[in-house]
């Protein structure tokens, strides 16, 4: 059952105490798959161990990655916990809605990841672009800030509250992983760059982000991804590339 549970991915966490508190919140609801992306103070961190109390096993099994892309490469659906981004169009869900959906995804054989941002400023657009959907907590708009552990606790609670019986989901082909979609994005960029699509130069970075964001929103299967690769390869041959 461990693999069916979502992975909680802490992106550039700044304080060991907050990592430990998040681990404790996770284990409260039976979640033990923690991933860390470039923790500021390195890993392992004794302050995290002290704060985790009896949840040390979550920290013992935590895996560390250099980038968000690497941390979510095996996930088939990724949520980003953040205030709604005005620059990136994505489905926006409450923790309740997201974890009900996550139950259905995992029941169908998918692998879910949930991104949590660093304490000071949260996730950046460059992180959120890799997610399929956004989780936003309906808090006081005059004070929307949530502690990392609080956010993990809310999400873990909603996962546990929905129990083991997921909503029925229509059967579909094997969903593409985030790694599959990232490689497809690279292939698109390569072909579009050769065609002179990313113009003018000062807008190229934003255009590339919009492309990646569009791909992350699509419910792509592995077969879909292979079809796109085949189309792009054929375009390249016709263009002499």
Element layout with pairings:
Elements: E1 7-11, H1 16-28, E2 34-37, H2 46-52, H3 56-60, E3 63-65, H4 68-71, E4 77-81, E5 92-93, H5 95-107, E6 112-116, H6 125-128, E7 133-135, H7 148-161, H8 178-194, H9 204-217, H10 222-238
Parallel strand pairs: 1-2, 1-6, 2-3, 4-6, 4-7, 5-7
Helix pairs in contact: 1-2, 1-7, 5-7, 8-9, 8-10
Describe this structure in words.
By secondary structure, this protein is of the alpha/beta class. It folds into two domains: 7-162, 3-Layer(aba) Sandwich (Alpha/beta knot); 178-239, no CATH class. It is built from ten helices and seven strands. The chain has helices spanning 16-28, 46-52, 56-60, 68-71, 95-107, 125-128, 148-161, 178-194, 204-217, 222-238, and strands spanning 7-11, 34-37, 63-65, 77-81, 92-93, 112-116, 133-135. The protein has a seven-stranded parallel sheet with strand order 3-2-1-6-4-7-5. Helix 1 (16-28) packs parallel to helix 7 (148-161) and helix 5 (95-107) packs across helix 7. The model has no long low-confidence stretch (mean pLDDT 91).
What's this model, at a glance?
It is built from 10 helices and 7 strands. By secondary structure, it is of the alpha/beta class.
Question: What are the salient characteristics of this protein?
Answer:
241 residues, Alpha/beta knot, 45% helix, globular, alpha/beta, tRNA_m1G_MTases_N, 7 strands, transferase, tRNA (cytidine(32)/uridine(32)-2'-O)-methyltransferase activity, S-adenosyl-L-methionine, 2 domains, 7-stranded parallel beta sheet, tRNA processing
């Amino acid at each position: 059952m461990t693999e069916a549970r979502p992975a909680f991915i802490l992106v550039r966490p700044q304080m060991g105490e907050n990592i430990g508190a998040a681990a404790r919140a996770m284990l409260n609801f039976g979640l033990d798959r923690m991933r860390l992306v470039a923790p500021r103070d390195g890993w392992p961190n004794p302050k995290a161990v002290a704060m985790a109390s009896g949840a040390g096993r979550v920290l013992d099994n935590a895996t560390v990655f250099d980038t968000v892309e690497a941390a979510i490469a095996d996930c088939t659906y990724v949520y980003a916990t953040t205030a709604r981004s005005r620059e990136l169009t994505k489905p926006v869900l409450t923790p309740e809605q997201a974890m009900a959906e996550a139950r259905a995804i995992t029941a169908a054989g998918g692998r879910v990841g949930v991104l949590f941002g660093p304490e000071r400023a949260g996730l950046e657009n460059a992180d959120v672009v890799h997610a399929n959907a956004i989780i936003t907590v309906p808090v006081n708009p005059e004070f929307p800030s949530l502690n990392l552990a609080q956010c993990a606790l809310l999400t873990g609670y909603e996962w546990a509250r929905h129990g083991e019986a997921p909503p029925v989901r229509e059967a579909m082909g094997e969903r593409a992983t985030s790694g599959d979609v990232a490689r497809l994005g690279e292939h698109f960029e390569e072909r579009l760059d050769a065609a002179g699509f990313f113009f003018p130069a000062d807008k190229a970075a934003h255009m590339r982000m919009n492309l990646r964001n569009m791909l992350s929103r699509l419910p792509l299967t592995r077969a879909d991804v292979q079809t796109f690769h085949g189309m792009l390869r054929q375009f390249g041959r016709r263009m002499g590339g």
